[in-house]
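User
New here, help please:
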Amino acid sequence: MKFRNITLSALLLLPSYYMYGSQDHPLTSGLWHAFEDIQHLLTFVGLGCASALLTASKKYFPWISFLAAMTLGGLLGMGKMITPLTEWAIAGSVLIYGIIIALRLNLSTGLHIVVAFLFGFYHGFAHGTLMPDKSSALIFLPGFILTAFAMTALTFFIASKGFSKFPKSWFIAGGTLVLAGLYLLIQLIH
């Protein structure tokens, strides 16, 4: 119950940062970066839904993996390290999560953790490279980590509670992510 309360509180705080915070402030800049690029939000949706497919005791392991990797990637991105194929990995994460969800693939927890880590790293790296020059990493980094956590938690709870009542929801959500992932990959080719 406490976990759900923390998640709901974080979600309720997000609009206040947007309305009353300055986009130039490192925290709000970090919070809202994910909303500027749809592929980040789609991946959080994918991670939340795919995590809901796991057994109850292991549902949070991919989140921890994703957020840890996102932190690492963000720090390396802030250091202006070059990582090839970042945009391809991000677009691919949307597509792969879509396939996992649409087909309700029963991945092992270990494989799910590795997939989440890989995608989290690239998402964090992308966030880190876009940190405004005058921002502090100690303030910017928690902003985008909080957004990732809140959006993943929201979709996890929706999938956990609502999708069981409407089994076709898995296919619809996953199919939407597959189409979006394909679109993002095609955009990279052009």
User: Anything to note?
Assistant: The helical segments are 2-20, 26-36, 38-52, 61-78, 86-102, 109-129, 137-162, 168-189. The two ends are 47 Å apart (CA to CA). Residues 16-22 have pLDDT under 50 and may be disordered. DSSP finds eight helices and no strands in the chain.
